[in-house]
Write a structure and sequence with these properties.
By secondary structure, the chain is an all-alpha fold.
Amino acid sequence: MGIRSWFGLDKPEAPEPARPGPPTTEALLEALGAIEAQAREGHVPGVVLSRLLRVTRIVRQTLPRLANLGIGSSQGYSVMATVTDYLPVAIGNYLRLPRDWADTRPIAAGKSSVMLLVDQLDLLGTTMDKVYDAVNRADAEAIIVHGAFLEEKFGQASAGGVLGLGPDPVAAPPPAPGSPGAAGAPAPSVNPLAPPE
């Protein structure tokens, strides 16, 4: 027996536990369903349920497009935290209170618990609207950039565009006054059998 065994240094180290990654889209969708079910089973007032459903609808629209913002974006974190923390805590805190007390007793700035919950859900709804706009704006920016590339490459669509395959007959400058082909100038006689000049 050596000195290492006295101090327990001869034992293999335990592997570090795996750290969970961010929740998947499927897990977030399940969490949304659970929050809605909790609110319905708790018989929250209609003003609360309608606002909750607004937030969950926007989140459901946002989730499939969230990858467009990039991994670790602040908007992505806001969506994840809304589903896993902000909504469950807000609804859970309200449901733990006796209903008559929560709906009638002012607790802060003259507002009852239900009024404060409505304010919180309105704030979350507005925030999720902004995130949804940011997600869609990323794709809209891609359309703008691609359109600018196409205009630079081929010209304006309203002018017929240019494919870059040779001289563009539409973009050729008009002939100078008095030169052959100008308005009012006599057309030169062309012998189709003559060699080109």
